[in-house]
Amino acid sequence: MLALKYQEKLIEVGTDEAGRGCLSGPVVAAAVILPDDFSHPLLNDSKQLTEKQRLELRPFIEEHAIATSVGYVYQEKIDEINILQASILAMHTSIDQLSATPEFIIVDGNKFKPYKDIPYKTIVKGDAKFMSIAAASVLAKTYRDDYMVKIHNEFPQYAWNKNKGYPTKQHRNAIREFGITKHHRMSFRLLPDQLSLF
């Protein structure tokens, strides 16, 4: 059973990201502030849910949350600052855009940078422990998937509608055959047998 909050006194936002391990597309983070009476029987870490369940949860979360927001950091910025910094930036961006101001931040994982002077707590596997992080994981994942399906139409040979930019065999074979696109992360090892340029 997921807990609603890490602490009881302050307005708490949960944040999580999707797409860190992908070869293409943005890293997407979401931030969610939930009311004290929030519950949904399906809510869990988005990785434990089917796509259908995530899509069922998304409108429910958006309708019943106090505030939700989604932040995108695209491949050019990922290449410039690295994927960890880009993930944190996406989380900061999503918190920035909230219509309510949080007083405490809970973050999935073990890495975060201070946001303004708001206290925060990093929680490993937080998306399987706290509702707001789980809700953020669902939003981040579904909005990122939507984006990958959209750019799939531009470059259908990479099957991003199915692999969402993750390093599947099919995706890597397409990179071998068709090369890289403007959506690929140049700082990533796009092929396991990539030759060094030096």
TrEMBL record:
It holds the Pfam family RNase_HII. A divalent metal cation binds at residues 16-17, 108. GO terms for molecular function: RNA-DNA hybrid ribonuclease activity. Its EC number is 3.1.26.4. Residues 10-198 form the RNase H type-2 domain. It catalyses: Endonucleolytic cleavage to 5'-phosphomonoester. Keywords: Cytoplasm, Endonuclease, Hydrolase, Manganese, Metal-binding, Nuclease. Manganese or magnesium. Binds 1 divalent metal ion per monomer in the absence of substrate. May bind a second metal ion after substrate binding. Transmembrane segments: none annotated. It comes from the Bacteria. It is found in: Cytoplasm. Its cofactor is Mg(2+); Mn(2+). InterPro entries: RNase_HII, RNase_HII/HIII, RNase_HII/HIII_dom, RNaseH-like_sf, RNaseH_sf. Belongs to the RNase HII family. NCBIfam families: PRK00015.1-3. Endonuclease that specifically degrades the RNA of RNA-DNA hybrids. This is Ribonuclease HII.
